[in-house]
Specification:
- This protein is an alpha+beta fold.
- It has 3 domains: 114 residues, Uridine Diphospho-n-acetylenolpyruvylglucosamine Reductase, domain 2, CATH 3.30.43; 120 residues, Uridine Diphospho-n-acetylenolpyruvylglucosamine Reductase, domain 3 (2-Layer Sandwich), CATH 3.30.465.10; 222 residues, Vanillyl-alcohol Oxidase, Chain A, domain 3, CATH 3.40.462.
- The chain contains 16 helices and 19 strands.
- Strands 12, 13, 14, 15, 16, 17, 18 and 19 form an 8-stranded antiparallel β-sheet that branches. Strands 5-6-10-8-9 form a 5-stranded antiparallel β-sheet.
- A hairpin with a 5-residue loop joins β8 and β9.
- The longest helix has 32 residues.
- 50% of the residues are buried.
- The structure holds flavin-adenine dinucleotide and 2-acetamido-2-deoxy-beta-D-glucopyranose (5 copies).
- One 2-acetamido-2-deoxy-beta-D-glucopyranose (NAG) binds next to α1 and α3.
- Keywords: FAD, Flavoprotein, Oxidoreductase, Signal.
- InterPro entries: BBE, FAD-bd_PCMH, FAD-bd_PCMH-like_sf, FAD-bd_PCMH_sub2, FAD-linked_Oxidoreductase, Oxid_FAD_bind_N.
- Belongs to the oxygen-dependent FAD-linked oxidoreductase family.
- GO terms for molecular function: FAD binding; oxidoreductase activity.
- This is FAD-binding PCMH-type domain-containing protein.
């Protein structure tokens, strides 16, 4: 009997603790920071906004409360209170990571960074600072008045967590990944200490934070980065009907292999819609994003512009306009039951054609099971990897380009049964892995599914594991919030 009661206690203890840990962390944080910075009203508009995610299944999770820190100190107090209560938590930037619990939490504390949104520009050093709240569109709008920008998202609606995962920008072929332009970070460590990370102070932490993923070594409360000039861009999208798929894939392959102009940047995207095929070619399209830093692209895009198109929006644009292509609300409009997967391939063989074939066959045989399917080709030219190296390299220690990342997006229709959902996700995973990844190249964190274990593909993985141990020694973050696995 005693044994039974004890076992029951052992079983229920952690559960009981789990259920009350969130509320107890929340009441402590409320007493320490004041109620205006904490929201527990599940029916309020503000609570609703904070629990909206780009991948909408996460909208269903109900944190015990949402904390809106206004300083690094507030973040520190919150983390210590969460730890004291043994609660789960999540840190939310823009909320675009589709992996469950990366920036969402059920019955724990959600730290919503949206109130941390200060920015500054120093014309003498050309250094820019931004805090993690808001989206890159806000950041671009701020710096453009100095005719400057920062290396960040290609779409204005994406949040700053992008930079911690590396960050691929239209400017990357010139300046490297978003994280390569970091010069100093303010970070609240898992134990609540507020530290600076740069290549002279905590250089190991600085290294890991440049592309080693958010949510692992602490919470970044301020980014100091090298700003970049932003004048006139020749840019736009061109939409082609699918019969041109082979010409376009050839042109993408040639661009990856041969383009040497770092001012020219593309994303090539193949899209499949849920509409029936009917041999009318209305269920698929190719959207080319073409961006040139300067008013005249010369013949950098000639292999694309010679292909007949349905729609062409190319012309002279400002940088904020470039980030609003195809439309300013693109990120919002693509909210849904979204999942990402990623592939990495070399450009010296026919893998880009193989990947497209496999993807297209899968799309044909799974009609009705997706509401959107897209395959995005993202070139990593040598100029990008050179620019990264010249600034000290990042956590990926990117091998010399050219090579490319493939981003696979699957949007499933609403109302799918759990078993149908699991089946389609498994089939999608198998389709992606049937095009084998190149040896020695890193999977891109920002486009990866958690089960792809991207960190383990980095040549620096062991070093990152050590750094993780050093800064999260008792596994507080590893145990209490979602994120990439270090095991
Ligand atoms: C429509 C769309 C377009 C995209 N375009 C690009 C692109 O052009 N280039 C590119 O590289 N990627 C792109 N991505 C991928 C994108 O980088 C990732 O989805 C990224 O995780 C988004 O960051 P976020 O702040 O919006 O999301 P969140 O989910 O809020 O954050 C992502 C992760 O980082 C953590 N995190 C966020 N901020 C901090 C912080 N300050 N300190 C510690 N941890 C933090 C979160 O806890 C979470 O685990 C795109 C994604 C979408 C949906
Ligand atoms: C409240 O949080 C602080 C840290 O911010 C911590 O030191 C204290 O122990 C917590 N109190 C309780 C009752 O958990
Ligand atoms: C930005 O560029 C425009 C056009 O060249 C110029 O007229 C303006 O003075 C510049 N602004 C600043 C702050 O340099
Ligand atoms: C365009 O394609 C041709 C091959 O048809 C190739 O030689 C050339 O380098 C390509 N140019 C660019 C900029 O991709
Ligand atoms: C420190 O950063 C500068 C860029 O500001 C870079 O040129 C230099 O190589 C870095 N040093 C190290 C040791 O990484
Ligand atoms: C926390 O992490 C450690 C090390 O990985 C593990 O041994 C422990 O069981 C975890 N604790 C909880 C409560 O999950």
């Amino acid at each position: 009997m005693l044994y039974f009661a004890l076992s029951l206690g052992v079983l229920l203890g952690p559960l009981g603790c789990y259920a009350s840990a969130g509320p107890s962390a929340c009441s402590n944080i409320t007493s320490l920071l004041g109620s205006p910075k904490v929201n527990s009203h599940k029916l309020s508009l503000k609570y609703h906004k904070s629990t909206e995610y780009w991948s909408t299944p996460q909208d269903a999770y109900k944190p015990s409360c949402i904390v809106y820190p206004e300083s690094a100190h507030d973040v520190s107090v919150a983390l210590q209170a969460i730890r004291a209560a043994d609660s789960r938590f999540a840190v939310k930037g823009g909320g675009h990571n589709p992996n469950t619990f990366f920036s969402s939490v059920d019955q724990g504390v959600l730290i919503d960074l949206s109130s941390l949104s200060e920015k500054s520009y120093d014309p003498d050093t050309m250094l820019a600072t931004y805090q993690p709240g808001g989206v890159f569109g806000d950041i671009y709008d701020y710096f453009i008045k100095y005719n400057r920008t920062v290396v960040g998202a290609r779409l204005s609606g994406v949040g700053t967590g992008l930079a911690l995962g590396g960050g691929m920008s239209y400017l990357s072929p010139q300046y490297g990944m978003a994280c390569d332009s970091f010069r100093e970070l303010e970070i609240v460590l898992p134990d609540g200490q507020i530290v600076t990370a740069s290549n002279t102070t905590n250089p190991d932490l600085f290294f890991a934070s440049r592309g080693g993923g958010g949510n692992a070594y602490g919470v970044v409360t301020k980014y100091t980065v090298q700003s970049r000039p932003a004048g006139q861009f020749f840019a736009g999208i061109r939409i082609h009907a699918f019969p041109h798929k082979d010409t376009i894939i050839e042109a993408i392959g040639n661009f990856i292999r041969y383009n040497t102009d770092p001012k020219a940047s593309i994303i090539g995207t193949y899209e499949k819609l849920p509409t029936p095929d009917l041999n009318l070619n209305i269920d698929e399209a190719i959207i080319m994003f073409l961006v040139y830093d300067g008013p005249d692209p010369g013949d950098a895009f000639a292999n694309f512009t010679s292909v007949p198109h349905l729609i062409d929006t190319t012309g002279i644009k400002t940088y904020p306009e470039v980030a609003d292509m195809p439309v300013s609300f693109a990120t919002e409009a693509s909210r849904g039951n979204n999942m990402f997967r990623v592939g990495v391939h070399r450009a010296d063989n026919e893998e880009y054609k193989h990947a497209l074939e496999v993807w297209r066959k899968w799309a044909e045989s799974n009609k009705g099971k997706y509401s959107l399917l897209s395959l995005d080709f993202q070139p990593v030219p040598k100029s990008l990897t050179d620019a990264s190296k010249a600034q000290g390299g990042n956590a990926m220690q990117m091998p010399d380009g050219p090579w490319f990342w493939l981003n696979y997006l699957l949007t499933t229709p609403p109302g799918m049964s759990k078993s149908d959902y699991n089946a389609i996700q498994a089939s999608f995973r198998d389709m992606v892995s049937s095009t084998s990844n190149a040896e020695g190249l890193p999977l891109f964190i920002n486009d990866a599914n958690r089960d792809q274990h991207p960190l383990s593909t980095f040549s620096t993985y062991e070093k990152l594991q050590e750094i993780k141990k050093r800064y999260d020694p008792d596994n507080f973050f590893a145990n209490k919030t979602g994120g990439w696995s270090f095991d």
